Amino acid sequence: MRALRLLEWKSDPVLVEIDDPVPGPGQVVVRIGGAGACHSDLHLMREFEAGLLPWGPPFTLGHENAGWVHALGSGVTGLDVGQPVAVYGPWGCGTCAHCLLGMENYCECPDLVSVPGGGGGLGLDGGMADLMLVPAARQLVPLPDGLEPVTAAPLTDAGLTPYHAVRRSWPKLPPGSTAVVIGVGGLGHLAVQILRATTAAQVLAVDTRAEARELALAAGADLVVAPDDDAVATLRAATGGRGADVVLDFVGAEATIALGAAVSRFLGDVTLVGIAGGTFPFNFFSLPYEVSLQSTYWGSRPELVEVLDLAARGHLRPTVTTVPLEEAVEAYHRMEAGSALGRQVVVPADAG
Ligand code: NAD
Ligand code: ZN
């Protein structure tokens, strides 16, 4: 089969021919219907160095995956060949306290897993291929009626990650509150929709690109702003001068963290999702009192079930551009150049 593989750090991935995966006991092979191209892959192929993570190339890219059950390993029950499924991406040990709660993104047993903090497409072979080996049947979530793999694929990360970030801040988002979304790309445009679908907060969105700000408006934002000199004043004015209860930063650069901090409100949350590597000087006067700062990584399996349900009932509509597997590298180049909108989803030619 064909697979788009990262062969070494700081390089473009290459499309190569490899053997079809064969499921061992308890494992499942999925025929890929869609694999989202995430900006994290760009960080992987541009910035990350050997030794930064406890795993590394070679592996097949693609950590946002959905498709159809292709082959079942011995002992797997409850799934049928041909059934549409989403792949839950972070693969933990399955037995620690967090994994038992479905939070394999925060598995606490790095010695029990081959790629701590990773999964398919992040250290192990992912879904930018015709087929993908999923090491445990529990990592598959059957798709609800009405949801196609090509739409479900980006929901497993570009949907799940902002869903988790919003959900943990739900108590701070009653009517009268404000949420600010910084960076309206694959994750950010779904963050706007998730805020709309699950809270009564006013939603303000920030992006450098005019077309991304248009996408934010289409996704339901009340106001969009460019990150220029007036951005802080414009955003604070939209909150009646009080500031934003929740800021979600899907960029993570020095400038966006500073912007998020500058528009935050007493008792608010500033949540860092983007991994551009910016830093923030935390001291007694650098934030309004009782603002909580946190990073978040991906989401839990139960949250993925909720995201898929929201989408199946029409509350989440990812803006998707499909890209043939042969053109996946160009998709990353478009993302790098700032000419991609919403999520690009790589589709093997024989999918469907
Ligand atoms: P994307 O490229 O689709 O979107 C990024 C958006 O940010 C673009 O619209 C871009 O125009 C905008 N942007 C860039 N610089 C900006 C600035 N200074 N101010 C305002 N807007 C700006 O990327 P994506 O796939 O949505 O990923 C977003 C980030 O989240 C990446 O850093 C990615 O690695 C990270 N990520 C984190 C997790 C996690 O679990 N924490 C999961 C997935 C992705
Ligand atoms: Zn990702």
**Average pLDDT for all residues:** 97
Number of domains: 2
What is the CATH T-level topology of the largest domain? Quinone Oxidoreductase, Chain A, domain 1
CATH class of the largest domain: Alpha Beta
CATH homologous superfamily identity of the largest domain: Medium-chain alcohol dehydrogenases, catalytic domain
> Helix segment count?
9
Strand content: 15-25%
Distance between the termini: 16 Å
Structural class: alpha/beta
H-E string = EEEHEEEHEEEEHEHEHEHEHEEHEHE
CATH architect. name of the largest domain = Alpha-Beta Complex
Which overall shape is indicated by the principal axes computed on the Cα atoms?
A: globular
Helix content: 25-40%
Number of strands: 18
Could you list some keywords that capture this structure?
9 helices, 352 residues, binds nicotinamide-adenine-dinucleotide, Rossmann fold, 7-stranded mixed sheet
